[in-house]
What we know:
alpha+beta; Lambda Exonuclease, Chain A; 5-stranded mixed sheet; 40% helix; 22% strand; globular
Amino acid sequence: MLQQQLEMTLDKLSNDEFDGLTIDEAWIDEAAEEFKAALRKQLTPQERDFRLRMSNVGKPLCQLQHGAMGSEKKRKDYNFKIQMLIGDAVECITNIMLKIAGANITGGKNQVELKIGETVVKGEDDIEIDHKVYDVKSCSPWAFDNKWDKGYSGLKLSDDFGYVGQLTGYAQAQNKELGGWIVVNKSNGRIAVVDAEVSETEKQMNLFKMEHNVDQVTTGAPLDRQFAPIPDTFRGKPTGLKRLTKSCEFCDFIKPCYPKAKYMPHPKSEAKNPPMYWFIEDD
């Protein structure tokens, strides 16, 4: 239903058909203020000390442990800040489109706290629709087509950023239902509304994972690498090389885990622009 509401509204707006649409000037002002706040946040020095928060507590344990240990992070690409601002802009745009589409917005931007063990984990949710908690995400075309467009089952197969745990935490902290994710392809503006089809068993498993992560981080448990290198193949045949998984490629802490890892073109490829991977000499 929400997917159809958004698509119909955007179809009308894209074709300058404003009849039947309500666009409150106050919504435009609110969106502008939201983006101004995002600009201030992104362009102001921030406290960088590690802390467990709702947005990271569902991530792989090894990433959290490296963060808590103060391990050296890989340097961000020069375009990283632009990517963050695009994500902020997408959220502001999506919020006003939901209002124009007539979504039943019942809350949002709530400061929440969830006690996990002896630790209070804090965060801020994005938006509440029909009294259910939703997150607004922007993503690359590849992630849209290969993960989000496949629905909740696609997300579960590759949740390297802990999105399911994050949404579970927001909902649990407020004793509300999980709604899902409103995802925008930042390249072409396509939208996918992904319902959080989380069973009660999965919910409890997510909460247990979060509790385990908090316990291991707060007690200073030994580093527990969650992902092993995988054998490399080219055109379906083993090459004898090993490379890191996609989960590791997204991680800020590659070098502390794998000091000899090298980011380089695939040595077997003869393409003009060969695919790039993190290869390791040994584990």
